[in-house]
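Our platform keeps sequence and structure together, in a single record for each protein. Such a record has a labelled line for the sequence and another for the backbone structure tokens. The tokens are whole numbers drawn from a learned vocabulary of local backbone shapes. The remainder of this section carries one protein's record, kept here as part of the documentation:
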Amino acid sequence: MSTEVKPEAKPETKTAPAPSQEMQQVMQDLINEALLLALDTLDNSCNCVFYQRARKIAKLVKKIMLSRGLQT
């Protein structure tokens, strides 16, 4: 009597495609703007730049969503 051991099937791992150079730059810009926004809140004069930074962040997020084919 032969007992044959079958190897277990490995689960498929899917990797996302590498982002383009432009999207890498957009993501870096988004991170930078978010950090600047966080740092601005530490200062009492943040009201004047808060909305400017928030608008920049919204534009960057929109650009990312459009590149992924998501509607805004």
Notes: Helices lie at 21-40, 47-67. The first helix runs from residue 21 to 40. Residues 8 and 56 are 49 Å apart (CA to CA).
